[in-house]
Every structure is written in structure tokens, then in C-alpha cells.
Amino acid sequence: MCIRDSPTTPPSALIKDDWVWRQRVASRRLPSKPPRPRILVCDESGDLATILARYSDEIEFAECSEPTRIRQALAECPAQAILLNTALPHDLYTRLEHTSQLVPDTPILGCALPPKSAHAWQAGALDYLLKPVMRQHLEQALAKIGKPIQRVLIVDDNGDARQLFTRMLEACDDTLQIRTATSGAQALEELRTCPPDVMLLDIVLPDLDGWEVLRIKNQDENLRAIPVIFISAQDPLERPLTSRVIMASIGEGITVQRLLRCVQTLTTVLTQPDSAQTRTNPTPDPVLE
Length: 289
What we know:
Elements: E1 38-43, H1 48-53, E2 60-64, H2 70-76, E3 81-85, H3 92-102, E4 108-111, H4 118-123, E5 127-130, H5 135-143, E6 151-155, H6 159-172, E7 177-181, H7 184-193, E8 198-201, H8 210-219, E9 228-232, E10 246-249, H9 256-271
Parallel strand pairs: 1-2, 1-3, 3-4, 5-9, 6-7, 6-8, 8-9
Antiparallel strand pairs: 4-10
Helix pairs in contact: 7-8
């Protein structure tokens, strides 16, 4: 057994008589992360900024739904570039030129992505919101009904999603009467027994999908007038959203040297296939599926 000797020097011998205690007044700070580049998205549908954010968390996307407010939006939230979207390709050049005159010192990119809600409109729905849904977009969709809302039916087979939309609706109006359904058949039964003022309808359901529920509802004269807002993580066209054209502009014009660099860069981007590696966001939360 090892026996240690008792210390012969008391702890007080290690402290100087003239030692002065000083309180640290400045806390140690970790280095701050560099700011993310910001792009101002001018899109009348209000969908594009949310869609782009799902593909990259390295860029900050600011929204501006009205082209006339672009200058004010940049003053409040400076951005490295403007992304201008229009559903009609032949209108893009005119809007690009007009925007370039408003903000001549900011690069402007133009594209023509159709609104994701167009297919839903044709099917008879009031709107189509893509998950993850922001509260302001839900409020805007509800405002399109044009009359007071008292009863809301939420149709989604995911319990967490039903709770999430219930909380969002209660935040909009805590007097709403909210009912839920977990399948297409249950949704149709709820519509017949307790008609709501609006139905929030998911597309992916365990029996009938949302499109079939909408079709059956619209065939019933007693149910046809009930507004339907699709809320889904699925593309309404069930194919990637694409733009037929892309344009670029800046107030001072694009020199030949810049034009050549743009051509080289775009050629590389456009000739390479899409890759899963371009997506920087993690897998979406199951609640949003």
C-alpha cells in the first residue's frame, strides 16, 4: 500500500500578500458568423421566396410582392440582387427594364415561373399553399374568401400538422370553430354533417387524395360553394417547377467582358444535371410532408 506524506506547506503560502482581486468586466465573445447574402424576391404569387428557401439555407430571401415597392424594400433591407418573377414570359422584358430604371445600381435577374396555384384554380380550389406555410400566407388565403369565417375544417392525416394549423388559425382568430378530419372519406362526411366556411385540404391522404375529395365535393350542389385551400408539400403539377426563360440586367448595362463571363457561367450551370448535392437544407420535418 502506498502511503502519501502529508503536505508540509500550507495553501496560504501560495498566495501573495499584495495580490489584488479584479473582476472581469468583459465577457469572452465567440466570432460572429458572416452575414448571408440576401436576395430580394419580387413575386406576385408570394410562393417563390418560400420555395427557394427550401433549397438553400446559405442565402437569405426577402419578399416584395409589389414591384412599385422595390426601392423602398431595398432601403429597408439591402440586397445583393433582385429576382423578378412573372407568370407571363412576354411581360418579363418590360418589367425588367422598368425595375432596372428604379434601382440602376442593383443586379436584376428575371424568370417566368407559373404560380403553383394555377392548377388548383382550374380544379376549383381557392388557393394552394406550399408547406411549410407561413402565417401571413394563410391569412392572405383566408382573406380571399371575402366574408367572415366562423367554422374551419382541417383535413390532414398527420396529427402534428393538424395541431400546427389549428394553432395558426387560433392565432389569426381565437373565436374560430375548428374541426379536423384524417381521411378523404371523413372529410366528405364532415362537409355534409357540419358544413364549414372553408376547408384546408392536404393532398396526400390514406384513402382518397385531395384532388378526388375536391372533385366529389364540387359535384354536390350543397357543397360546391364551400371554399377549399390546398395545403400540401406536394407540387400541384406533380413535376418540377421550371422557368422557360431567364434574363439579367443592371442599370449601367452589361459590358462585353461581363457578358462573356455570364455566358461561361450559365453554360456550365445549364449543361450540368440537377444534383441532390445542390440542396443544402436538411430533410424537411415530417410534419410538413
